[in-house]
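Sample 3 of the quickstart, ligand zinc ion:
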Amino acid sequence: MSSVRVAVLASGSSGNATVLEAGDTRVLVDCGLSLRQLTRRLAEVNLKIADLAAVVVTHEHGDHVAGLATLLRRYPMPVLATAGTLAALDLPEGVEAAPLQGGRAVRLGALELLPVATSHDAREPVALLAATDRCRVGLVTDTGVMTELLLERFAGCRGLFLEANHDPDLLRWGPYPWPLKQRIASRTGHLSNQQAQAAVERLAHDELEVVVAMHLSQENNRPELATHEIATPLRGARTQVLAAHHERPLVVELALSPTRHGQLHLFPPGNS
Ligand SMILES: [Zn+2]
Ligand SMILES: [Zn+2]
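Result:
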């Protein structure tokens, strides 16, 4: 296996969809895009729906599942989600549903996926750590706080796909009604740029190659604000900082060089 590729097809409240790829294994994480948009954006990264082994759903909010039922009706594939999320989803009949449990890793071909609970106003939402035997990548969006559990689990990632939803001042003075502002800023809402910065401060290490700012609000954030905040604690490091887009894919490839740690045991059994 030569690399792990992450294709963020779309990120933000208008729709989320990401493909995790290692070897011949490709998994879709969330499906907040219409079938037409999903097909188009997959083609832009040289993939097609038939390449996907399964879809993992992080939680049941519309921006993560709007296109899920249509996708599954046309292209049946297994759905992996926590029991709470599965109960909140209206899956088409006959779809194979595999329950995920926080802290319990599952293997899908070359990828091992570890769901980790987030703090968000959904039934049983999770972030995901994806690992091969040589690389781990973290995907965490839709959480109001970076809990100690998330910080512990996401240590040692080579690639970090981290929510930077809003700038607190833009949110405060922006056009949203107060109840929505309060929801976003709450402990079960979304991470601000500053919260993302604090998380990066904790999670930075020598082999952190890239941090991608995810789930940026179109009204309450700007890509350059998010990347500036995130890059601040990384000054002097070789880590690249990027922002994911609403309207076009962003592809990150983590090439695997021989690791100086040898074979990593990524998710020790019994660790939940
Ligand atoms: Zn969302
Ligand atoms: Zn959400």
